[in-house]
Amino acid sequence: MACSQTLAGIARDCSSNMGGIKTVYIANFADVASVTVTSGVVTAITMEASKKFYKYAFSPNTSSFTSNWNVSPENGTKYVETLLTMVFNKMDATKRLEIVALAQTEMVVVVEDNNGTMWYLGYEEGVRLTAGSDGQTGTQRGDRNGYTVVLQDIAGELPMTCTATPTT
To answer: Residues with Cβ < 8 Å from 137, sequence gap 6 or more?
Structure first.
């Protein structure tokens, strides 16, 4: 028996487009009371009382996210792994402690890309810190000194766009 879906096609996009991400907002997974999804778009995020998202900013042209399908026709399985790589310049105690906290929690993440589109990660289960460098000083004076953090989202589909503004 064939598996069939209703397809609609994708038109050529002639508008301007920019790579990279601008800002990341992160909250504890348990602090999100509910998420409203309308036609595949996150339209509202309700937080538990007094809980909020926290803003993570970084230098331009340093951070990104990539989503990859993982499909096994033999096993009849499919899922999407999204990896969010955030680069923070200059090693210091405040950043170190925040990265330690990120490593110990499940999160919900809203990523704003350089096109102004927001993406919601952690809809099905919490996002987790899975990799990164503990800190690098660099070798030369012009090298970057800082941290690289990789957060992982595993889901049944690609990340949804988000029109809801994270509560900060």
So the answer is: 91, 143, 145
